[in-house]
Amino acid sequence: MSGGAVGLVFVSHSALIAEGLIALARQMAPDAALAAAGGTDEGGIGTSFELVSAGIAAVDSGAGVVVLCDLGSAILTAETALDFLDDDVRGRVRVVDAPLVEGGVAAAVAAQTGASLDEVVAAARSAAGGDPAQHGADEATRAGGSDDPTASHAAASVTLRNKDGLHARPAAEFVKLASAFAAKVVVNGKDAKSLLGIMSLGLVRGAVVELQADGPDAEDAVGALASLIESGFGEV
């Protein structure tokens, strides 16, 4: 099996939590392949080897599957399910140690953009946090600037028009558009391709959004992102 997009399985001790997370993620990644593996086979609190296995099978298109869990014993259940997979399937399934909600949403948005298995895993792990100030500095270092002196640079300042600011849905739309370009894009010091990074800015209506990009399509990236912000993301 090959092709398709990376799928995600959310493993929780509660079916309501797993299903609720899918509902949340669908607001930002409506086309991502998502499966809930919450609760026991009888509908109680706990985890189920069978539900995890079924979830993996349901979202496996051949591009890989990322499994996120809520508590330690859920990880054990997921890892047990992996042990029973065929070797070729097991090789493209990753159980990722990351916060279930934040990591799940970030990974779903990455999967929606067509990101690779490694990229979706990295998106999930970006929710692990650490020192927020250092994390922001690291993002800016990765996303901003270029060692290639011939690489093009573009910048723009745009005022955010949305009544509710850059909340989850427009932030996801912004990240998906930024991810379509090869250029490294920075938004107010944050990596434009990181959903959690963008949302951490807490941009409200009237905030000035500073866009900077470096790369072969830097001007196109800044132009498209500036236009999206100016459009109000369809909310104005």
UniProtKB/TrEMBL annotation:
GO molecular function: phosphoenolpyruvate-glycerone phosphotransferase activity
Domain PTS EIIA type-4, chain residue ranges per copy: 5-145
Region: Disordered, residue numbers: 128-154
Chain segments annotated as transmembrane: none
Domain HPr: 153-236
Any one of the GO CC terms: membrane
Physiological role: General (non sugar-specific) component of the phosphoenolpyruvate-dependent sugar phosphotransferase system (sugar PTS). This major carbohydrate active-transport system catalyzes the phosphorylation of incoming sugar substrates concomitantly with their translocation across the cell membrane. The phosphoryl group from phosphoenolpyruvate (PEP) is transferred to the phosphoryl carrier protein HPr by enzyme I. Phospho-HPr then transfers it to the PTS EIIA domain. Component of the dihydroxyacetone kinase complex, which is responsible for the phosphoenolpyruvate (PEP)-dependent phosphorylation of dihydroxyacetone. DhaM serves as the phosphoryl donor. Is phosphorylated by phosphoenolpyruvate in an EI- and HPr-dependent reaction, and a phosphorelay system on histidine residues finally leads to phosphoryl transfer to DhaL and dihydroxyacetone.
Protein name: Phosphocarrier protein HPr
Organism of derivation: Plantibacter flavus
